[in-house]
Write a structure and sequence with these properties.
It is a single chain. The chain is an alpha/beta fold and 387 residues long. It is 44% helix and 13% strand. The strands form 3 sheets. It has an 8-stranded parallel β-sheet with strand order 4-11-10-9-8-7-6-5. Strands 1-12 form a two-stranded antiparallel ribbon. Helix 14 links the parallel strand 8 and strand 9.
Length: 387
C-alpha cells in the first residue's frame, strides 16, 4: 500500500487508492453527494472557468505560504474541514488526521459526529483545532458539546448551518450505508473482499461517537443513515437567534459553515460571527446550488473586511487555492481532498496529500510571481464567463 501511496500524486490518485481499500458502501459514502450530484461536480469544475494571470521576474526564491485565519497562524492557506465518522474510513481516524495536520502546521476539525473525543484530540495535538457543531433538538447535548470544546481550549467552533434536514444521498440508499455499517447480502462480498478494513473495524477499538454518548443512542449502538440522523435529530427550527446563543455560550472565534448567499453573509456579521465557510456541504445537501468558488468574490466584496471568508469545497489542486484567494478568500478548506488519503493509508496518507498540496501551492506561487499569499488579488485571475 505504501509503495503505491508513493506514486499518488494528486487527489484523483488518492481516490483510486481509497476505492481499492474500502468496502463499496463506505467508499460511496465519502464519494457520493445529493440527487444527480451536479453541484458536487460543479464545485471543482467552477475553477476551470477562471484563468490565472501570472507575473514574472519578481524574485521568488522564497515564498511565504502562511495565513492568519480565525485568529490562528497557519503555515499554509489550506486546512482540513471537519468531517464525520472518520474511523469508519481508517482505524486511525481523527488521530491520524490530527497528527498529519500538526506536521504541516495547519488546522483540522473534529465533528459532533466524530469518532474520537474532543478531549483526546486536544491532549494529543497542539496544532489549531476547530470543533464542528450541529444544533440538536436536545439542547442539553448541544450545550454540552460547546462546553466540552471550550474546556478543551479549541480555537474555533464551526456551526454548520446547511443541514436543517438531510440531503437526498441516493448512493447511500443504493448501497445501504449506515453508521455503524450494516452488512447486507449485497455488501457482504465487498466486506469480505476488503478483509483488512473489515478486520480493523471488527477487532480494533469499538466504533463510537463520543461527543454523543450519554445523550442519544442514534449512531452509537443502532444503525442509522447520516441523512436520517440529520432529518430526525437536528433542530429544524434553528434560526439566527440560536446562532447568537451559540456565540454567547462559546465566547470565542465562531465560524458559520454553509453560508452561500450575500444576505446570509451580512447576517453572519450582524450576529457576531468572526468567519464564514462558503460551502454547500460538498454537494451533499442541495443539488443544483452554486459552487463556493462561484460565490466567493460576491461574498468577499460584501463582508471580507468584516470577517474571514473561507472557500470550502471542490479543492483538488494548489491552483484552486490560489484562484480562491485571489478572488477574495482568506484561506481554503476541504474534506474529500484528505478523506480519500485517510482511507488509503491513515496518517501517512494524509501527510502525502497535504505534502502534495503544499508543494503545488509553493510551486504555483513561484510560477505566478507572488512572494506571499497576501499579494494575491483580482489582477491575478480572469474569468472566461461572467459569474
Amino acid at each position: 500500500m505504501f509503495r503505491r501511496l508513493k506514486n499518488a500524486h494528486n487527489v484523483a490518485d488518492m481516490r483510486l487508492l481509497a476505492k481499492q481499500r474500502l468496502p463499496f458502501p463506505i467508499f460511496h459514502y465519502i464519494d457520493g453527494a445529493a440527487d444527480d450530484e451536479v453541484t458536487y461536480r460543479r464545485n471543482t469544475a467552477a475553477f476551470d472557468d477562471c484563468d490565472l494571470v501570472p507575473n514574472v521576474l519578481v524574485g521568488v526564491e522564497k515564498v511565504d505560504m502562511s495565513v492568519t485565519v480565525m485568529g490562528c497562524k497557519l503555515d499554509m492557506p489550506l486546512f482540513c474541514s471537519p468531517t464525520a465518522l472518520q474511523r469508519l474510513f481508517h482505524h486511525e481516524g481523527e488521530r491520524g488526521l490530527g497528527r498529519a495536520a500538526e506536521k504541516f502546521g495547519t488546522m483540522f476539525g473534529v465533528s459532533s459526529l466524530g469518532t474520537v473525543s474532543v478531549e483526546e484530540m486536544a491532549a494529543m495535538v497542539k496544532t489549531p483545532k476547530m470543533f464542528q457543531l450541529y444544533v440538536h433538538k436536545d439542547r442539553e447535548l448541544t450545550n454540552s458539546m460547546i462546553d466540552r470544546a471550550k474546556a478543551a481550549k479549541y480555537d474555533v467552533v464551526a456551526l454548520t448551518v446547511d443541514t436543517i434536514t438531510g440531503g437526498n444521498r441516493e448512493r447511500d440508499l443504493r448501497t445501504g450505508f449506515t453508521s455503524p455499517p450494516k452488512m447486507t447480502p449485497k455488501s457482504a462480498i465487498s466486506f469480505a473482499w476488503h478483509w483488512q478494513w473489515t478486520l480493523n473495524y471488527l477487532f480494533r477499538q469499538k466504533f463510537e461517537l463520543p461527543q454523543l454518548q450519554g445523550h442519544v443512542k442514534q449512531g452509537t449502538n443502532i444503525t442509522i443513515s447520516v441523512g436520517e440522523y440529520f432529518s430526525t435529530m437536528l433542530d429544524q427550527s434553528m434560526n439566527w437567534n440560536d446562532v447568537a446563543e451559540v456565540k454567547k455560550r462559546w465566547g470565542g472565534q465562531l465560524c458559520l459553515k454553509g453560508i452561500m448567499s450575500v444576505d446570509d453573509a451580512k447576517k453572519a456579521v450582524d450576529v457576531g460571527a468572526t468567519a464564514i465557510m462558503v460551502s454547500n456541504h460538498g454537494g451533499r445537501q442541495l443539488d443544483g446550488s452554486r459552487s463556493p468558488f462561484d460565490q466567493i468574490s460576491r461574498i468577499a466584496d460584501a463582508v471580507g473586511d468584516k470577517l474571514d471568508v473561507i472557500c470550502d469545497g471542490g479543492i483538488r489542486r494548489g491552483t484552486h487555492v490560489l484562484k480562491a484567494i485571489a478572488a477574495g478568500a482568506k484561506a481554503c478548506s476541504g474534506g474529500r481532498m484528505y478523506l480519500y488519503s485517510l482511507a488509503a493509508a491513515g496518517q501517512r496518507g494524509v501527510e502525502k496529500a497535504l505534502g502534495n498540496m503544499r508543494k503545488e501551492i509553493e510551486r504555483d506561487m513561484k510560477l505566478m510571481g507572488v512572494r506571499s499569499v497576501a499579494e494575491l488579488n483580482r489582477n491575478h485571475i480572469s474569468y472566461r464567463t461572467k459569474n
